[in-house]
Amino acid sequence: MLIAALLAAAIHWPPLTEKKLDNGLTVVLVPLSNVPKVTAELTFLAGRGSGYREHPGVAQLAGRVLNEGTTSRTSRQLKEELRSIGGSMNVTVDDDATTITANALSEFSPRLLELLDDVAEHPAYPKSEVDLAKTNFAQEIDEQRSQPDFVANEQFEKAMFGRHPYGFVVPEPAAIAKITRESLKQFAGSHYAPNNAHLILVGDLQPDAMFDEVQKAFGAWKRGNAPPLESPPLPKREKRQIYFVDRPGSVQSTIVMGAAAPARKSPDYIPLRTANMIFGGSFYSRITRNIREDKGYTYSPFSQADLRRRAGSFFTSASVRNEVTGPTILEMLYELDRMRVLPVTKEELDSAKTYSIGTLALEMESQSGLANRINTIYTYELPRNFLVTFDEKVNALAPDDIQKSAARYFDTYRGAIVIVGDYAKVKDQVAPFGDVTLIKR
Amino acid sequence: MHLPLLLAAMLTVPVEYYRLPNGLKVVISEAHTAPTVTVAVYYGIGFRVEPKGQTGFAHLFEHMMFQGSANVKKMEHAKIVEANGGVLNGSTRLDFTNYYETLPSDRADKALFLEADRMRSLEVSEENLKNQQNVVSEEVRNNVLNQPYALFEWLDLWVNANQNWFNAHNFYGDLHDIEAAKIGDVRQFFKTYYAPNNAVLTIVGDIDPAAVKPMVQKYFADIPLQSVPERPDINEPQQTEEKKVKETDKLASLPALALGYHIPDQESPDYPPVVLLNLILQGDDGSRLYQRLVKEKAISLDWGGGINFELGNEFDYDGPMLLTSRTTYKAGHTGDAILKEVDAVVGDIQEHGVTAKELRDAKVRFRSNFYDQLESTFGKANLLASFALFHDDPARINRIVSAYEVVTAEQIQSAAKKYLVPANRTAIDRVPEKK
User: Fold this and answer.
1) Pair (A146, A261) in one structural domain
2) Over the Cα atoms of chain A, what is R_g?
3) Domain B243-432 CATH class label
4) Which pTM was predicted?
C-alpha cells in the first residue's frame, strides 16, 4: 500500500503579534481559543550556569524563591490569589533561561498579568523562604542523584561542555550554604529585567486588548543591566572517551552517547533535527527497530538533537539490562556510523519530513505547547518566520543533506560515552570501546 | 471585567454517539482549533481484572497489539502513523487499555484502518512474544526495579490498601509471571476481551462527522461480535482499621511516605464533595497539606496526590478507588509525624468545615483543571471514551462542571468526616536502607 504522501496543504499557524514596551520588554500575543484559559511565559536570559563561577546554584535558587513572596504579598497570599483565578505559576531554570510559566481562566487575565508582574518586578526574597529553599534544594539534589537518568545526564553535560555554563548542572550542598539572601537579590535585580526578557501570551485572548492589559501591568517596570551571556570555548576531545559512574547494585546500565552540535540558530539545525528523527527521534526509528524491536535489549531507546542558544549536543540513550551493555554500545556505534557512511532511503526521508512537519503542528493543540514552541524563537534567536517557513525548509532536504549532517555530528570517534551502572558487573563489556574514566560517588 | 468572554458560548463539546450492529460504541466530536485528529480505541479490559496468577498480563498484551495484524506487519503500524505525520501510543490502566493516534486531520482514515485491522485480526508469533517479554521486562526494570521508590505510591499502596485480589495485585507484573506468558494465553486474551462489543472508538478533531462515518462503517462494521465474560466482582470490603506498612529502599537517599483513603463510588452523591475536598487539601502549593507540611512545618520536600493518582483522572476509571498522597521528606523526621499533621489538617476541616472562599476557589480550580483536559484532541477523546465505556453516556462531558458548581461546604465537611479517617487509611513509610 501507499504508505504516505507528503502533507499537501500548508499548516496554518495562528498569527503572532509582536510588540515592545518602552522598558524593552518584548511581548508576543497569540490567540488560541481551544479552552477559556490563557497561558503566559515570561522568560529571562539567565540560565542555570549564570553566575555559577562565583556562586554555584545562584540562578537556580534565585528562580526558586522568585515566586515565594513580593514586597506586597506573602508567598501564601500569592498562592491563594492564584487559586482564586484557577491559576498556577511555576519557575523553571534551564540551560539558557529562567522562565515563569503561569496560566489562569481567561476571565481573570488582568489579574494573572498583575500577579506575574508583581513577582517579576518586586520579588522580596523573604529570609524564611530563602532559608527553606536552601535546605530543600540541597536535599532534592541528594534525591536526584539517586536516579540513574539524572546522574547520566549530569555527567554527559560535564563531558560535553566542561567549564562552559552549560557544563554546570547542580551545585554541591556546601556551595548552597554559602549563597546569601543578598546575592540572590543582586542576581534578581540584574537578570530579571524587562530588557532581558520576553513575554509570550497564548490562549483565549484578543491581541490588542491583551496588549493594553500588559502595558498596564508591566509598563512601570524599570530597565536593568544584565551581564552579557558568557560563551567560553568548549572542550576539545581528540578521541572517544568513556565516563563510567559506578552505581553498585544497579540492575541496568544507563547509557548516553553523544557529541558536540551547533547552536539552535545554525542552518545545520533542520538537517540535524531530521537526521535525528530517522536515527532515534521517532518510534519507527533505526535505533528502536534495532535494539528494542529486533533484539529486546531495552524499553525506551531514543536520541535527541539538543541545540541551545550558544551550543548544543546530539546524543542517543538507553537503559539496558547489565548483560547486554556491551552489545548495546556496539549497536549504537554501528547505527550512528551507518548514517554517516550510507545515504538514507528516499522513503525514510519522506517519512521523516512528514513526521517532522506533522508533529510540529500537533503542538498547536495546547496553549502551553504552542507557547513553548514560540518561546524557542526568542530564546534561541531563530528567525521570526520560523514556523511558517519550517515545512518548506524540511521539504527541501535531500538524502545527501542528511548524510552530511550525520557525518559531521554523529561523531562516535570524538564523542563521549557515559554509563551509569554496576562497574564490577559490566566493566569487561565496556573496556573494548575506549579509555574509561571511572567516577565513584 | 476588562476582556470579553470570548469562549463563554463555546464550553459545549459536540458529541455524536451511536453503536454499530456489532456492538462497537462510536463517539465523534468536532474540534477545529488545530488541524489535527485523534483516533482512539478503548477496550474494556484493564490490569485490575487480568487473569489471576498472571500479573502484568494486560500490559504485556498491550505490547502485543503493536506486533502486527493481518494486513499490517510488525512495526508497520508505527511506520504508517509516523510517515503520515502523527504520533501513536497505547497504555494499560485500571479499567481500560487504550490505543491511539494523533495525526494531521486529513489522515483519519489511516488510523481507522490500522485500528480496525488489529481489532479484527491480531497476529502473534512465538518470536514476537519473546521479544516483547524482554522489552516489558526492561520496562519494569527501568521504571520500577532500578528506580528509587519504585512507584510505591501506587504499585505498593494498592496492594496493601485492598483485600480483593483484583484491586490488590502487582499491576505492572512480577518478572517471573511476565516471562512465563505463553502464546496460547495471548490468543485467548485477545479472543476474550478485544471484541467490538467491549470497545469504544472515539474520533476527535478537525473533521467532518459526515465524512468520517462512512469510513467507520467501512473498516469496523464487519468485525464480528463475541461473547465477553461478565466482569468479576471487584468490590472492595470496608476497611475497619488503619494499616501502616514499613518498607526499605536500596536506591533512595531520602525517606518518603504514601497514604491512601478509600473513597466512594463515582455515582455516589458524596463523590463531587470528595473531589473538591481533595483540591482543598492538595494538588498545588496553595493547598492546605502543602502549606502545612512543606512550608509551615518544613518536614516534607514536596507534596503530591490526587484521585486515581499517577494512573489517570477523576473520571477515567470504574471501580474502587483511593485518594492518594505522596511526599518525600527530610531525614530526621518520621512518617508518623507526617500522619499526625495530616490528621490535624483534616481534623480542622472535620471540625470547622471549609471557608466560603475555599469552596469558591476549589470550584474555580476544578473548572480550570477540567478545561486542561479538554485542550487537546487526545484529552477530550480520553474523557469521551471513558464516559461511553463506563456509563454509555459520552455527553456527560458537558454536565460535569455544573454538577460540581452545586456542592456545598457542609457536604465537604461531612465527606471529610466520613472518609478521611485513619481506619479507612493505609500508609507506607519507605525509608532508605542503612548503608
Assistant:
1) no
2) 23
3) alpha beta
4) 0.95
